[in-house]
Amino acid sequence: MQRSPVVRARGITKSFGDVVALDGVDLDVASGQVHGLVGPNGAGKTTLLGLLLGLAVADGGSLEILGTPVGRALAVPDGVAGFVDGPGLYPSLTARQNLTALASLRGNADGGAVERALEQVGLTDVADDRIRGFSLGMRQRLGLAAALLTTPRLLVLDEPANGLDPAGKRHVHRVITELAANGTAVVLSSHRMDDLAALCSEVTVLATGRVVFSGPLSKLAAESGELDYRLLTSDPAAAHQVAEGVTGLGVLPGRDGPDADVLVVRGPVPALDELVVRLVGDGVAIRELAPVVTPLEAAFLALTGAGGGPGPTEGGTR
Ligand SMILES: Nc1ncnc2c1ncn2[C@@H]1O[C@H](COP(=O)(O)OP(=O)(O)O)[C@@H](O)[C@H]1O
Ligand SMILES: [Mg+2]
Known about the structure:
Layout: E1 5-16, E2 19-30, E3 34-38, H1 45-52, E4 60-65, E5 68-69, E6 80-83, H2 95-105, H3 111-121, H4 136-148, E7 154-157, H5 166-181, E8 185-190, H6 193-197, E9 202-207, E10 210-216, H7 217-222, E11 228-233, H8 236-244, E12 250-252, E13 263-266, H9 269-281, E14 286-291, H10 295-304
Parallel strand pairs: 3-8, 3-9, 6-7, 7-8
Antiparallel strand pairs: 1-2, 1-4, 4-5, 9-10, 11-13, 11-14, 12-13
Bound molecules: adenosine-5'-diphosphate and magnesium ion (MG).
Adenosine-5'-diphosphate binds next to β2 and α1.
């Protein structure tokens, strides 16, 4: 597959008054690539995606999209589709009417395209419902369907995972994967690393307007140091004592509430192995031992300083 550059941004800066939203950002996206833009709230993701869509102009730096330099005008080359801050739709029209109106505005009278787009995002069953009553996830999917009407060469999606239920997520994943397989470059953002892990091969991590990491996901995962692990046993008090006796293992302060029985420990893998061996030797049963956050999430939190303690996790013995 040809991998021509679709986005080439160098040293992009953008401020709103005193707020520096983007501070020397570089971004490279090749055709057929699904590129994740990840960072905590306020990192500058929406601002950067807005520049790619021609909704705003950078203060400095250079931006090339599909080989064309983007100048001072609020315009980008044909072949760019997507939306930030939710798609612009007519609330009093149905999903099908919205797409049909968009298709005819673009001179695309092929009714089949509308039906295909509805099918692709899984909205066929609600195609004749007014979108006023649509959930955020359904609106996101309809916005994606609108983008599909144009066969984009660059698709830009801001936080597409927001509000999606598992079925919606599956549809969106499939659409994005198929587009990329056909050569579309996709740039999508999320404030959560785990949203992107399944979809993206490359990520750019932003923190307060600066790129703190750019490259393959595998490389990002390797950047995480020692992880915190949740440990649930048949005897939390005994486990605590054993853990404190293992060299190189830190025991983190316990938490109240439903997790009061969960011990959080941090250390290198050999120390964890030692802990498991000793617990079993002492007759303490291990019910769960799992990283509090995945290596990817850990690297993300470390890079962006968005820590503030472990977030909610789904545990499981791994
Ligand atoms: N139109 C605007 N006017 C003023 N400040 C803005 C505007 N858009 C974004 N900002 C500021 O720029 C920073 C980056 O915002 P944004 O790009 O929306 O971040 P993200 O999408 O990563 O949450 C934030 O501090 C935000 O408050
Ligand atoms: Mg945003």
